[in-house]
Amino acid sequence: METTIAQNICLNLPLGFTEVEVNVSNDTNIEELIYILINDNKVPVYLEKECYKEIEKHLRDHVDNNYNLVTDKIIQDAKSNTIDVEEIIKEWEKMIREETAEFGEKVCASDEELFALAYHKLVHSPALETMLQLEHTYAQTIRHRVDERDRQIKSLSDIQTDEMTKAVDRLEDEDMNERKINEIAARHFEDHSFLRVQLTSELETLKEAQRREYREWIMQILEQNQAKGSLPTPNSPLSPSLSTVMSFREPCGFDNDLQNLYLNEESFTIHLGSQLKQMHNIRVLTADVIDLCSINETCLEPTPQLLQTSLALYSNDLSGLVLLTDPVVGTWFTTGFSSICQRSTEFHFPHIEDQYEAINNVIKNHLKDGNSKLLQPGDFYITRHSNLPEVHVVFHMVTDDRLKSADINSRNAVILGLRSILKVACSYDITSLTIPLLLQYEMTEEMTVAWCTKRAELVFKCVKGFMIEMASWGGSDLKNLQFLLPRGLSHEVFQSLTAMLPSIFKVSNPLILKST
Predict the structure, then answer these.
(1) Is 4 helix (H, G, I), strand (E, B) or coil?
(2) Predicted local confidence at residue 436, as pLDDT
(3) How confident is the model at residue 249 (pLDDT cuts 50, 70, 90)?
(4) Quick one: which of 434, 423, 425 has its CA closest to 390?
(5) Per residue in 218-234, pLDDT tens?
(6) Which CATH architecture has domain 267-507?
(7) How far is CA 246 from CA 216, 305, 347, in A?
(8) How far is 94 from 88, CA to CA, in rounded Å?
(9) Checking DSSP bridges between strand 430-436 and strand 480-485, what pairing results, if any?
(10) H-type alpha helices, 268-318
(11) Please, which residues have CB within 8 angstroms of residue 269's CB and are 6 or more apart in sequence?
(12) Residue 149: DSSP 8-state
């Protein structure tokens, strides 16, 4: 029989609130209790998440203590032979089999598996165009709301800046002092935070509604297609009519955009291995890594890159990208990347913010060095995407300023991190991978021609060795490898870097026969 122990807990809530006495026991619903505390104490909206985590930590600690007391009592009873241990073991075994999915019998596929199967079947059917048009229309709605959110936040910031400037100019007047300046600053911060949280919450609600409606539509359209052999055109209440969008077609200048995006590029076909040769495609290009993940928002139709993303989403032919970042998850360079991800709804995987939060939780629990709170150079974490062009998996690899040195070698932590990334790619059906060749995204003063040549040669040779090593382990072949160079690289340096590639890799050259 379960024992319940009640205990009165005094908590000091954040923001200087008075002490609140809370009664917590084993069967207390902590989530409900936390929201009651937040509402009763009128916690500001922008601090709810932080307050929630703090209160939850204290409450769960005390609940765990209650469970420990109950467990200790049961253990003491077991030691004194006052309970039937065999009967308890049988009861536990029964509950685990009935209540735990991991140990229970799998009766049917999960909702995620069913949706994946349905999507994969429809995307390889005549329904593909309708699906892409619906996704594109959803994305246009989200982009409009994101732009409107940013406009309102900027407008408020401009108004607050003008107000603060005028207040500072009047600081010498009798009716203005430092205390009032601080009050204005505090009010500005609260108003700004409240507006941002409010607009972001509305945007997230819209995304969840789109996600739910889209997934329901996929399942419904599959059932109708199987039953009637026809594919009706949907009309979403969250976006303009699809028939209107599909009836108005306008070229989006895709070819011109590619010419502007990739100023320099060159492709090679190589062979690796001495006996059982394997063929790979290598492409070297100069571009901005963020542009590779961006969608042409001026198009009124889905871009061809998104078509390829959809077709290969649930296949063994995935595409990956190595994105250099700092030790803090979701900051610094990845801010621009996150903004791109947020401009459309993620229908298949958790949203980028939720993925970052899950990664942070894993990092906190599994860091090798207990005294360190940050990732180390060479470490990487993975995010999954279905709303980016030609990218399904992003490897966020941690780097530092030591990469700017010309003296790094093959034992550098970041180089070894590339080895681990290639291993993961071959193990999980990632057959196309984009790697920054110089391990830098922008040209700086210290990146001379000699520096670039030495760095490119190191990365070329290391990647070649890693690919040969991975081929001996089995798994998927890395069919396409793309080396990315900074956009500001001169054409002459680009030519010198691509010229060294045939001397490192065995390039496949055609034989030209001349008739006499």
Answers:
(1) coil
(2) 92
(3) very low
(4) 434
(5) 888 888 777 665 555 55
(6) 3-Layer(aba) Sandwich (3.40)
(7) 22, 19, 21
(8) 10
(9) parallel
(10) 289-292, 304-311
(11) 279, 280, 281, 282, 507, 508
(12) H
d(CA 341, CA 365): 27
Residue 328: both structure tokens together? 């803090």
pLDDT score for 80:
79
pLDDT at res. 181: 87
Structure tokens at 380: 């990487």
pLDDT score, position 124 = 86
Query: CB neighbours (10 Å) of residue 484?
Result: 21
Q: For the segment 258-317, what is each residue's pLDDT rounded down to a tens digit? A: 445 556 888 888 877 666 677 888 899 998 888 888 887 777 676 777 888 888 889 888
Question: Strands of 393-398's sheet, edge to edge?
Answer: 380-384, 393-398, 318-325, 430-436, 480-485, 278-286, 265-272, 506-507
77 vs 30, which has greater pLDDT?
A: 77
Short-list 489, 498, 501, CA closest to 263: 489
What digits encode the pLDDT tens for the residues 397-408? 998 888 888 888
**Token duo for residue 468:** 């040969």
Rounded distance between C-alpha atoms, residue 84 and residue 81, angstroms: 7
Helix (H) or strand (E) holding 32, with range, is helix 30-40
Asked if 464 and 272 touch (Cβ cutoff 8 Å), the reply is yes
Q: Looking up tokens 């319940």, which residue turns up?
A: 4
pLDDT for res 88 = 80
Separation CA 145–CA 133 (nearest Å):
19
Domain coordinates in residue numbering, the chain:
7-99, 115-247, 267-507
